[in-house]
Design brief:
The complex is a heterodimer.
Chain A lengths: L13 H9 L5 H10 L4 H12 L3 H18 L1
Chain B lengths: L8 H10 L9 H27 L5 H14 L5 H8 L5 H7 L3 H7 L5 H7 L9 H25 L7
Classes of the chains: A mainly alpha, B mainly alpha.
């Protein structure tokens, strides 16, 4: 994951990425951090993502799956 | 009015536990999310609390109040039966709420039998509708009665000699 931008995450494009950056989530690992603090819970993470950058259901799901898989593999 | 934003992280955590909301640590980045969830839970809790209080107070002032709030409350209860009664003449309904004995009214107000019943029961979502339970009970008792009748006829009649 390294220093990749938040837009490297699945479901996060330019628009959502910009919104996340404005809220301080400028790197993928910061969103990962938030994912972990929410205990990797799907419902909580989806709700948080929706509230923070306005992600729709598909985008929420993609981002969650992406982070979930990364954690399953590397954490 | 509780000011959630003025509460400490620890207090927010405790409130989340009280409402049974699953959560992670309450930190700066998760605070806003949990405050929102608490606000939703509080308003929902307040709404169901007020509604259940209303079932015990049948004062005239509450009549119109109940009518307005019913659509919100009975969302989980089968909408099928409820929409049937939306078209009903509202002048009939206040009669049910004014009297003190709702169960007596059940026989009198035949046009709206389920209403006092729905009001009496606590506002919990039912997995199995009440009418179905009663029906099953009647079927089972009917079957038992049939079995009993058959057993009676199988025994030879005893005489007191």
């Amino acid at each position: 994951m390294g220093e990749k931008s938040v837009m490297a995450l699945a479901g996060i494009g330019e628009v959502l990425g910009k919104r996340l950056e404005e809220k301080g989530f400028d790197k993928a690992y910061v969103v990962l951090g938030q994912f972990l603090v929410l205990r990797k819970d799907e419902e909580l993470f989806r709700e948080w993502l929706k509230d923070t950058c306005g992600a729709n259901t598909k985008q929420q799901g993609d981002c969650y799956s992406c982070l979930r898989e990364w954690c399953d593999s590397f954490l | 009015m509780t000011m959630l934003s003025s509460k400490s992280n620890e207090e927010i955590k405790r409130m989340l536990d009280d409402y049974g909301i699953k959560h992670g640590p309450v930190v700066d980045s998760t605070r806003a999310l949990y405050e929102k969830k608490l606000r939703e839970a509080m308003s929902k809790h307040r709404r169901t609390q007020v509604q259940s209080d209303r079932t015990y107070y049948r004062e005239e002032e509450d009549v119109t109040y109940v009518q307005h709030h019913r659509p919100q409350l009975y969302d989980d209860v089968s909408n099928r039966t409820w929409s049937d009664y939306r078209g009903m003449d509202y002048t009939d309904e206040p009669a049910i709420y004014r009297t003190q004995a709702p169960y007596q009214n059940m026989s009198q107000a035949r046009n709206l039998p389920p209403e006092p019943h729905i009001q009496k029961t606590p506002e919990k979502t039912r997995l199995v509708p009440v009418w179905l339970q009663i029906l099953v009970f009647l079927i089972v008792s009917g079957l038992l009665y049939l079995v009993y009748i058959n057993m009676e006829s199988a025994e030879p009649e005893k005489r007191l000699t």
